[in-house]
Amino acid sequence: MAKRRRIRWDRILMVFGPLLLILILLFSRCGSSDDRKKPAKEPKAEQSSTIAEESGAVPDVTVPVPDQTEPAMPVDVQTQELVVVIDPGHGGNDGGALNDANNPTRFEKDDNLNLALAVEQAFKKYPYIRTIMTRTDDSFVELNERCRIANEANADFFISLHRNSAVSGDGVEIWINNDSGGDNTMDKMLAQYIMELLDEVGVSNNRGIKSGFRNSDANRESNNYYVNRYTQMPSCLIEMGFMTSDVDNQNFDAHLQEYADAIAAAVNELVTDRRLLSTDIQP
Ligand SMILES: [Zn+2]
Questions:
Q1: Cα–Cα distance between 154 and 83 in angstroms, integer?
Q2: How far is the CA of 164 from the centre of ligand 1 (A)?
Q3: How many A from CA of 160 to the centre of ligand 1?
Q4: pLDDT tens-digit profile of 256-265?
Q5: For residue 98, how far is its CA from the centre of ligand 1 (angstroms)?
Q6: pTM
Q7: Which helix (H) or strand (E) holds 225?
Q8: I need a surface site. Which of 50, 73, 156, 175 has the fewest CB within 10 A?
Q9: Selecting from 3.40.50.2300, 3.40.630.40, 3.50.30.50, 3.30.465.10, what CATH number does the domain 82-280 have?
Q10: Which residues contact 123 (CB under 8 A, 6 or more apart)?
Q11: What whole-number distance in Å separates Cα of residue 49 and Cα of residue 282?
């Protein structure tokens, strides 16, 4: 009796087996067409768990989000717009440094203003950066007024433009606050980014980033440049070459626009690298 039953099942399988296979194939095709209507997220989850299974790892049901796996960057500000104050040193009665003390033909105040105006134009490339000038013509502005303009605007960066008054020497240097008044990390970064791009344009001598004040004196209230000390945001003071250096003056005239572009590009790079802007308008 048992033998007869076995033969019967074999025959049934032989007849219906191929039919069952066809049915299974048809069903699986219907299933995959349904999958196509599902959100794109789900097949990805299936894929990742399959890979995990193949590699012997415990399947992870959570889909990895790329943003969370990226290295964490320090974020200082998240805003739609950044404000940069451009401060052309001296002006009006205050001519600043001269190319020649006995027979001056070139005044620092003019070079500072020309560079500042070019920097202001260069920043127009970056719509999320707004600039404020502490002066736009040959007028005298007090140091405390320059700081007040920046502080009242709640600016994000303050960049003072000068040329070196020392009698001998050549090259570009950038001054920042020393850290006696607090953390000067961002000041240092601002100066480093700017110096790197100025150096790429070409300077006679990269004199580096310096902190404090050139004529440091223990009796002074502050051993920092006034505008660095009394502005409440990261700041730096660029000495764009020596007024008494012919090569620096030639560089200044030949590369004015490139230097201006470099300063604006450096700020933009810093803003991008540090993610200072709101993510939806991040460049
Ligand atoms: Zn100066």
A1: 8
A2: 6
A3: 9
A4: 999 999 999 9
A5: 10
A6: 0.71
A7: none
A8: 73
A9: 3.40.630.40
A10: 84, 86, 129, 131, 264, 267
A11: 33
